[in-house]
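Repro case for the chain-ordering regression, as requested:
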Amino acid sequence: MAKVLMKGNEAVGKAAIQAGCKFFAGYPITPQNEVPEYLSRELPLAGGTFIQSESEVAAINMLYGAGGSGARCMTSSSSPGIALKQEGIGYCVFGEIPCVINSVARGGPALGTIQPSQQDYNQATRGGANGDYHIPVLAPASIQEAVNFIKEAFEIADVYRTPVIVLEDGLIGQMMEPVDFDVPVKKREHTPKSEWAMGYGNGNPHLIEGIVMDAPMCEKKNRRFFKEKYEVIEKEEVRYEEYMMDDAEYAFVAYGSSSRICKTAIKTLREKGIKIGLIRPQTLWPFPQVPFQNKNIKLFIDIEMNMGQMVPDVALAVNDKNKVKFFGRCGGMIPSPEEVVEATEKIIGGAK
Amino acid sequence: MPTTLFKKPNGLTDKKFHYCPGCGHGIVHRLIAECVDEMGDTNNTIICAPVGCAVFIPNYFVYDSIHCAHGRAPATATGIKRTHPDKTVITYQGDGDLASIGMAEIIHAAARGEKFTTVFINNGIYGMTGGQMAPTTLPGMKSTTSQSGRDPKLNGNPIRICELLATLTGPAYIERVAVDSPAHVIRAKAAIKKALQYQKEKLGFSLVEVVSSCPTNWGKTAVKAMEFVKTDMIPYYPLGVYKDIKEGK
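-- result from build under test --
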């Protein structure tokens, strides 16, 4: 099908409907308001339920019920709103609820600012709920990729019975780009919901579990998650892009919007004779390891719209923190390609 | 042929209740199961457990169930009922859960007219955590966090949930009952049945508040606790129907 020009947030809403989302609950917050606005209009036409919840807290707990009842479900929010959802995300993890959380990050902390930011890397990959857990985090760098990842997120959520976060920023949410909504996303096999969800028990009770009072049993459940979910996800679900890495001596490490700025900077730097490429993690958890084993790379230069939240992950993957450098802007400020070029030249110059 | 006068309802499992002697939870659990049985919905019901002593509800009912986050049962039940509109959905919540940390969720679920039923247990205290002051703790009543007795000037005033929710348009049925005497237990059952019936007829949100007891954290015997419900709790929390859209109330 021909591409259509669409705003990121609306495209996310349309992708969710295409993916078979039947329940959405959300609360207004900039810069993601077009997601609930679009779905309030379109989801009921597709046979789904839209609820503007009284709070972010209620929205995620509605997903806990709807997802626990077998519905494909999604919520969407931005930084302070995602902070409020953390408790409910923990319940969705422990109750093994497949659900998608669309997170359109803005500058923080607190109300911070409404401009685009990547200051929620730790919030997404480390989370703020209590307990030991991981959540797959997909980080699109274009509206096309956001559409593809939303659809894929529903599949991953069903396969592993886990919440999945699609982490964007205000740039992806607010800009318009041509999108092809017919890019196929692989449908995956998963346990039928009738085997575990509420509303299908028919005398053989199905329980969505939030408490395991017996400590040995609680440990057993934690360990099952690590063995059956997280180890498998780390093996099967890692995604990344390598750009101009074939002859590279230096590598930018960037995801989402900042990776696009890096691609522009690479052009300028290469014209100046600096052989630099880009490693772009598309999953932030699980974090890619393989591209960082590249022994030709003298320095990995992490570029983010934050104060370096991804640096520890890069340093662990490289296994040599001296080879990892950082440049970033934060608080809703977007680095220009020129700034990135200048910072890179300084870093590389200093390394000589 | 022998006549069965009383038996355990089909909706309850064989697990022994862990509740203290003189606690109202066991009575209310049975009443819910009897009503659901009588309505033919034993295999058609989903129950949402709160945080508090009743968190173990999934052990006691044969229904599909979910452990909700503290106070969030009305939001979770909203997600369930919207997904399964033909199932009977019940939230079972205590006063700390519903009237303190979950006040926003209960008010908005009621205002939206969500078609599920809430059974609200008001015993004026936090049970499971060991007797702290609840939003419904009576003035003068001692708790572990109001050790000289609740002083409204210092600790604020109790909240009357039925009266508050009855101001909304969304609820179809709201009644306050008690389980301190056989007559009140019979009345409580009728109220729960009516609330479930209204849910089945998709008339709107329904809530039954049950004024109940917590002998352990009240520091009373089972008998004295039931007397306290009659002499102190009910005068502050008057029993009766607060909303009934069929009766134009």
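Ordering looks correct now. The domain at 241-351 of chain A is CATH 3.40.50.920 (Rossmann fold).
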